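queue> pop job 88
queue> type: inverse folding (structure -> sequence)
queue> payload:
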């Protein structure tokens, strides 16, 4: 009865199917459609009673539609007597709204965590949360995986040992330091000033990047303002090459135009979020898959094996 079965919403079917191939199962039979007035309809076409159900959905654009799809699917499985329901959310939307930065503001990341729990999720598997402490917003187990193994392998294969890993802001220093340590290379930090949401101005570079190839490392790229300002600052401080790696390719608004016109030579992303049409035709953007990493996490969660070795 405790059979592993994976269902997916409409956010990233290609990655969901890749995970199923890696596990060796078929994607669960479910229909997630929209009524003419915009309401979402979920129909599960196979029995899940007593099954170990995994619901795959990235809460990427359109964020609210994909979030509601996820909540309705979880509720459907709960009412269909699934033994356990795990929400697999490679990209956790609203994660940046994790504290009150101005008076009378919501803590949206906590609200989304409460919604997933209230809908009936028993566990969450996610990747590269914007802030690790978001795991504390949940009263259920959370496995926060990292895309580091995939990105590290790419950097080792494509860059020399004297490459400098760069954090685009103070918040990403811990992530960048971990990469620099694993690669046995140097670390630099961009001193950034943010004047308003989605607007950033890079002011200074802490560290030696002169005559070095640099790799900017971040958890996500949204409008690419931070990334392109960082690239400009690195070039002004003598870097001979500027590349970038991130886990989540949000790439909204003018992101692709900014990247195309910037000093960045390549932007390496993972497939936690499917590329939009502009990003697909940008020759600077390269995609690495995290399907095997997520497949391993799902299999280990299903069998009760340790997931700790995946947290690198």
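queue> result:
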């Amino acid at each position: 009865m405790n059979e592993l079965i994976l269902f997916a919403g409409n956010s990233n079917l290609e990655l969901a199917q890749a995970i199923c191939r890696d596990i060796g199962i078929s994607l669960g039979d479910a229909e997630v459609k929209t009524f003419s007035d915009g309401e979402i309809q979920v129909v599960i076409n196979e029995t899940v009673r007593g099954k170990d159900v995994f619901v795959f959905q990235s809460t990427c654009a359109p964020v609210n539609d994909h979030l509601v799809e996820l909540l309705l699917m979880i509720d459907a499985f709960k009412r269909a007597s699934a033994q356990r329901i795990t929400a697999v959310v490679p990209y956790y939307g609203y994660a940046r709204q994790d504290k009150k930065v101005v008076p009378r503001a919501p803590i949206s990341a906590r609200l989304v965590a409460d919604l997933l729990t209230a809908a009936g999720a028993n566990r969450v598997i996610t990747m590269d949360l914007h802030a690790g402490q978001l795991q504390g917003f949940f009263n259920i187990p959370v496995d926060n995986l990292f895309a580091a193994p995939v990105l590290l392998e790419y950097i080792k294969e494509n860059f020399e040992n004297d490459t400098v890993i760069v954090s685009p802001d103070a918040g990403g220093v811990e992530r960048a330091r971990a990469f620099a340590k694993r690669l046995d290379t140097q670390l630099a930090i961009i001193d950034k000033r943010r004047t308003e949401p989605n607007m950033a101005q890079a002011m200074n570079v802490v560290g030696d990047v002169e005559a070095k190839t640099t790799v900017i490392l971040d958890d996500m790229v949204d409008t690419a303002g931070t990334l392109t300002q960082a690239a400009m600052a690195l070039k002004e401080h003598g870097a001979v090459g500027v590349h970038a790696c991130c886990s989540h390719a949000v790439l909204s608004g003018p992101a692709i135009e900014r990247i195309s016109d910037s000093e960045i030579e390549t932007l390496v992303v993972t497939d936690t979020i499917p590329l939009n049409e502009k990003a697909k035709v940008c020759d600077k953007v390269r995609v690495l898959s995290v399907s095997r990493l997520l497949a391993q996490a799902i299999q280990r969660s299903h069998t009760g094996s340790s997931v700790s070795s995946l947290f690198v």
